[in-house]
Amino acid sequence: MSHTLPSLNALRAFNETARTLSVTRAAQALHVTHGAVSRQLRQLEEQLGVNLFRREGRGLALTGEGELLRDSTSQAFELLTRGCAQLKRRAADAPVVLGCSGSFLARWFIPRLDRLQTQYPNLSLHLTASEPINGENMPWPLDAGVDAVLRFAEPPWPIGAQVIDLAPELMGPVMKPGLIDKDIAITPDILPNLPLLHTQSRERAWSLWLSAQGLDTTRIRRDQAFEHLNYLLEAALAGLGVAIAPAYLVEEDLRTGRLIAPWGFIETPARLGLWLPPGAPGTAVGQLIDWLRGELCSITPNGGVPDTR
Length: 309
Description:
Keywords: DNA-binding, Transcription, Transcription regulation. This protein has helices at about 10-20, 25-30, 35-50, 65-90, 100-110, 115-120, 205-210, 230-235, 245-255, 285-295; strands spanning about 55, 60, 95-100, 125-130, 150-155, 160-175, 195-200, 225, 240-245, 265-275. By secondary structure, it is an alpha/beta fold.
């Protein structure tokens, strides 16, 4: 059995036809003739020994084999596009484009930019907000315009992903001082009776934390939910309730006493990782990795701050 791949032109013709379900539109997108695409598709089917399309009314539909090949070619061409874009940026000595969530960018990364610039003055970095989709289960966060993405996620990593594991996610409840009456003992078992604030990006956070304390998770109320962690923490700072948040995002608020974390933080199954395309990272990305590791190693399960009330 031969393992020789079909021609790249044939696979491109198929991928575009599978995307548009039209030989005419595929030919227009590829700037070739209708006949050229038809020949490539016919030769591809003969080489693979399967039918990739079937007629459906006046249009085309993919067969089961066609759907399988479409998924493979889509991923392969996306990977090629990303790789070529990465090489072009390296050749042009372009800045490293780093994506991370808006909350992490604003509350953790930007306040430390001066330290990064001091340690690596020649490192050119462009930061962009890159929010996860589908809650906590975004499978692959990179696109052609981004060199790396910094994000929390649970292993195992997607196939083809290169993830530099940097630190555990530390999660815990935080609130504004004075939210609880001074006469009430601040113990974890009072939490289900308090207004609990939730965020869509960490839907399981309260359950994980309460389970770690041996508390009944069925008593959790969804008093108020927010789309982003930034909004959640602003609500906590306004005294609207108790938020559940990563320690990294509240370090400064805890240090200055704007928030307190009387119950501490737990390590969740998620990891903070730097997601990269396949291949060896360049010098600039290597410097970024070294700096991130140095900054994150000082974080402790209590968030690196006093456990004040």
